[in-house]
């Protein structure tokens, strides 16, 4: 399994599409077997799911993303976990231990913002 985490410094980014890098963890038998930092290819609709699928990512952890982005990840066979917060190394350990559950997206830009436009 490969898990990508949107990052801001050492913390999970509030919005997946707006971060500049992704920490990608290779996980086997509930152990981290590799870690890579990928630079974002840019924020364009539909680009990130294809980019991460090309890197064999199977799961994405993020604070938030719009519903259209979630659908695009699902179409690329990538499971999405939203509402994730905290320090990246702690989050990936919690994920391996089964402590990360589906949550609410932290993506909110005001009442007139259409988040699916990300």
**Elements, N to C (H/E):** EEEEHEHEH
Average pLDDT number = 85
Structural class: alpha/beta
Helical percent range?
Answer: 10-25%
User: What is the alpha-carbon Rg in Å?
Assistant: 13 Å
What gross morphology would you assign? globular
Most strands sheet: 6 strands, mixed
Terminal residue distance: 26 Å
Residue share in β-strands:
25-35%
**Poorly predicted sequence stretches spanning 5 or more consecutive residues:** 106-118
Tell me the number of strands: 6
Count of discrete alpha- or pi-helical segments spanning 4 or more residues? 3
Brief summary of the model shown:
The chain has 118 residues and is of the alpha/beta class.
Question: What are the SSEs and their pairings?
Answer:
Blueprint: E1 2-8, E2 11-12, E3 21-28, E4 31-39, H1 47-54, E5 59-61, H2 67-75, E6 79-81, H3 88-96
Parallel strand pairs: 1-5, 5-6
Antiparallel strand pairs: 1-2, 1-3, 3-4
In words, what does this structure look like?
- By secondary structure, the chain is of the alpha/beta class.
- The chain has a domain at about 60-100.
- It has helices spanning about 45-55, 65-75, 90-95, and strands at about 1-10, 10, 20-30, 30-40, 60, 80.
- Strands 1, 2, 3, 4, 5 and 6 form a six-stranded mixed sheet that branches.
- The longest helix is centred in the middle third of the chain and has 9 residues, at about 65-75.
- The chain is globular, with a radius of gyration of 13 Å.
- The termini are far apart.
- The relative contact order is 0.23.
């Amino acid at each position: 399994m490969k898990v990508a985490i949107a990052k801001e410094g050492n913390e999970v980014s509030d919005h997946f599409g707006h971060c500049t890098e992704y920490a990608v963890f290779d996980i086997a038998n509930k152990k981290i077997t590799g870690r890579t930092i990928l630079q974002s290819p840019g924020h364009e609709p539909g680009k990130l799911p294809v980019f991460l699928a090309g890197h064999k990512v199977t799961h994405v952890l993020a604070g938030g993303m719009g519903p259209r982005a979630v659908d695009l990840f699902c179409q690329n066979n990538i499971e999405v976990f939203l509402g994730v917060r905290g320090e990246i190394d702690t989050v990936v350990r919690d994920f391996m231990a089964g402590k990360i559950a589906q949550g609410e997206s932290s993506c909110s830009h005001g009442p007139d913002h259409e988040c699916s436009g990300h």
